[in-house]
Amino acid sequence: MTRHYDHQIDKIKSMILDLGDRVGRVVEDAITAIEHRDTRLAARVIAKESEIDVLEVDVEEECLHALALYQPVASDLRFVVAVVTINKDLERIGDLAVNLAEQAIDLAAEEAFDGPPFDLLGETRRVRDMLNLALKALVAIDPDLAEQVRRSDDEVDRIHRQACRQLETRIREHPHDTSRLLHMMNVSRQLERIADHAVSIAEDVYYMARGEFLRHREEPCIAHVS
Fold first, then answer.
1. CATH of the domain at 182
2. How many whole angstroms separate alpha carbon 120 and alpha carbon 166?
3. Domain of 128?
4. How many separate domains does the chain show?
5. Is residue 221 assigned to a domain?
6. CA-CA distance, 107 to 100, in Å (whole number)?
7. In this structure, is residue 224 part of a structural domain?
8. What number is the average pLDDT over the span 116-127?
9. Of 6, 138, 192, 200, which is least surrounded by CB within 10 A?
10. Rounded-to-integer distance, Cα 111 and Cα 156, Å
């Protein structure tokens, strides 16, 4: 039974890494579609949604099969439980990538901005980095990479809050431009949510590796000397 069980765990690892790779690529494509007003690329992202949904169901079924048939314990149990939650996060990131692609199509139908009305480049770069780092942490089961992802989230949150303030001001000052400004606000919100799911993946990787819940660990206080 050990040989069959090892094969089952290897199969689950392969499937979750494949799903992570596919989700990473659709997020990248969705962001590119927004940056370059590329409706064809956006349409390809939207077409990938059902494929990701099917893979998510397949991973969950394999995990439930492993739990029911082999009743894993200790680190193996942590691995399977963590994969179940990571699987959900990846599927949700795929949904958010589709939302971004839909925003890309809507924005392409509007007049182009003379420069983004908020730090879109900074937010997309940080979200890309966080998701890539979370997926690298998953591949390597690396708790140190997982912690780096968590520490990066505050900067994305800061950019998103600033974006909301800037866009709200623009809407008040230019009410005729409300439609495309709201699209940009939605873009920032979807990016911020992808970052949140990247953090959730990183926290589950940390749990896999260390058996501790990173989300409940207090951050050290840093004294600021003036």
1. 1.20.58.220
2. 12
3. 2-216
4. 1
5. no
6. 10
7. no
8. 93
9. 6
10. 27
